[in-house]
Amino acid sequence: MGFLSRVITLFGLILLAHAGYSTHEHTVLYSNVRTSAASTTTLPQDIVIEALISLVIVSAGLVLGAEKLKPISWSEWAGEIEREGGARNPYRRLEERYGFWDVRAKRKEFADWVRGEIPKE
Q: Largest Cα–Cα distance in the chain?
């Protein structure tokens, strides 16, 4: 993580903390004032905008500080998993599942059993 990305992330976190503190102060200030019939008040637009901008700045700082992505070679990965087998194979449950249940054949078999006919196998 580069120095610039850390500074950007820190600045965004400071803005986010300030927006949270401003929200807390606004809530405390208006919780004691019960002059109107409507007891709920909305946050001022500047606090909402500050929170959204700080989230964008923090996200940008984290993305800029991320390491370069490595290319994925599917064939190498799949070959390695196939050779090793076992618990690391993410498709193991699909490969070892039972076959689909033939509903129509089972209904016919049950109907034959009810009529007293012996099903042919």
A: 85
93: left (phi over 0), alpha (psi -120 to 50) or beta: alpha
- If asked whether residues 57 and 85 sit together in one domain, one would say no
pLDDT tens-digit profile of 51-89?
A: 999 999 999 999 999 998 888 777 777 777 777 766 777
Give the pLDDT confidence of 6-33 residue by residue, as tens digits: 999 999 999 999 999 999 999 888 877 7
Give yes or no: residues 17 and 46 share one domain: yes
Structure tokens at 66: 């991320």
Those residues whose C-beta lies under 8 Å from the C-beta of residue 20, and which sit 6 or more positions away, are 51
Residues 60 and 109 in one domain: no
- Number of domains composing the chain: 2
Alpha-carbon gap, residue 97 to 99, rounded angstroms: 7
Range of the domain at 18: 3-65
